[in-house]
């Protein structure tokens, strides 16, 4: 039962859904704010929990609609043995019940159609076969001609009766069988019907028991047809010398007709089906029946607004007893315009008969649409709303749920909640990252190919930086790059655009993966293991908590061991740990779904249509080359003219000059890559001349771009020599050099023709080379490198910025030890670095071994005033990066 199943209105359900989701989001956000959880963690967790509540409450609201879609598709293929859940009290539940009724009716009609075709074929084949044999004998001169013609006439008359009966049913089904009523003296009509029945030559006797003065309002032709068909049916099933009795009587405003025979009778289980065309009594002993007589009798009864049924024999008698109850004056509403399928089913018969016969068993029980199928993806082929949102960019092809990945993400989330909050980045952070990466790696089906293997190695190396380096900015950059690398391994991204789309797809996976998460949970509960898994989990946790508390409090040694591995879960950190657990679980599960069902990020990469004329691409590239040449000429003038020339022409010092345009040069280098890519896609390369022009133009542009890169690096070098070394300046140096490497790679791709199809290897080259460059920065220990250069600069110039150096991480402590004691006290000072083994970090470990407790600058000079501090701890005015 779904949470909102009892609600009888879709509007009310939607209102409750919105209210509950908003309330849960508000409560979770408030708890996160009070607990001091970072918005980067609390906002995604709040959204995820609100979506989970929405999904829980919305369960069952749209599922019947999706199942109706799947059932309708199966019905279109001729499978009417389907049903959908219809337990809801709202409009969808009502629609489900109506759908099941429609499916049942269509199934009955389809069965009748198949039976009709089969039986009509059989009924037509028998007299036709006999007629063919007679005619063949006549052609061959075999047999007596009068006798043969009499036999042929009998078979032709049998065919004629069958065709007439079929035409009668066809007229009823088409609504062309009007009821023409008049006053009918019932006694003479029954006598005439018995006389017609006697003319058939059946070896039975007939008796009529009817009031002489019974006059009714009826269609005499149709009523005669009714009685004759009942008599014919009774005579065919009676033994030789049997008695067939027709009785009539009045019952108030109605009258009844009964036909009794002395045959075997009709079993109660067959009484609901005998009035269908070619029903269970269609086959007679002599083969003379058409199997449509009782169906026509049923139709005539319905026309007159009455009912017909087989009843139990009278006491002391045997045989079949069929009773027809009719009104003395048929109402106009009783005239059906069309004989529907429900009028030929047992359900309609039971509502009309005074004595309800047992309902017939259905030919085949209805199956729910979610019945197991031989195709593992068949149950998941129904499109959802998310398919309309994501379209062909990210189709959900019904990939099966994998409960192991769900458990892995839950374990990673639990590790994150236990090891990350209230700790600095260190060994615990690396453990969580490697656990998450292992889940994502196992989710990918292509994890054994070359590119994913390289990405997994880079992911492990980048994640391990948190163990070796204490610089927070470096650890954050390495972790972000590690995430990007493993996500690209999951999506098999090839181009720069594909890498960007991979990053965008990761948060969207939380929405796109909702159906997959549902299938994952259903894969356990659907096999009957859901309750067992939940029960086992609860009992295991109870056993762990209860007996763990007992034994850890009883044994001090065991308690000390547990303290080393289990964090101190205090009330002020409990909420933060819960938020971190949910956050890590969500992001790992989203990354796992990205690996299980990656989006089509590179599907639009195709060969571009080259331009028709060479000047269309050569002219824009030539303009860019000319601008680069002008810039390089200005650079040469500044270098050879010296600082005097700069002051005369610009009013700037050389240090100010080199700092002024560094950002613009970086942007120009990045745009050069775009120009090379566009030219390589649009330039025609059919002839040798075209390829030569492309290589010369792009080679010249790339050469100029590399000179610009060198100029930018030289500018930054001069600026750092003048104003000191910082992390940002080091990063900018590495970034500019990396752009120069990409310029070279882009030129190689262009001149060799591999970029004309999109440069599929260039994106991966940029990703891997960028990750390697970041690892190179981590290897050189950037904070220590920066500290060493600033110490060297102090030794040469006497200039030092203690405010900046005091902000460096513990990685810089060995280099800062070279400063004089008074400056060391300004830069290092007392610091508490206590932490458990999960915070272990090589940089902090080395700092703990080298850094003694230095006195404060005020104590060093014997003066606690701010002036003394300023005199001991110099700070120079540096340009802001």
TrEMBL record:
GO cellular component: plasma membrane
Protein name per the record: Signal transduction histidine-protein kinase/phosphatase MprB
Principal place of residence: membrane
GO MF: ATP binding; phosphoprotein phosphatase activity; phosphorelay sensor kinase activity
Keywords assigned: ATP-binding, Cell membrane, Hydrolase, Kinase, Magnesium, Manganese, Membrane, Nucleotide-binding, Phosphoprotein, Protein phosphatase, Stress response, Transferase, Transmembrane, Transmembrane helix, Two-component regulatory system, Virulence
Region described as Disordered: 337-377, 848-881
Membrane topology note: Multi-pass membrane protein
Catalytic activity, EC: 2.7.13.3
Bias (Low complexity) ranges: 361-372, 860-870
A matching Pfam family: DUF4153
Annotated localization: Cell membrane
Keyword flag Transferase: yes
Residue span, HAMP domain: 59-111
Domain Histidine kinase span(s) in chain numbering: 119-330
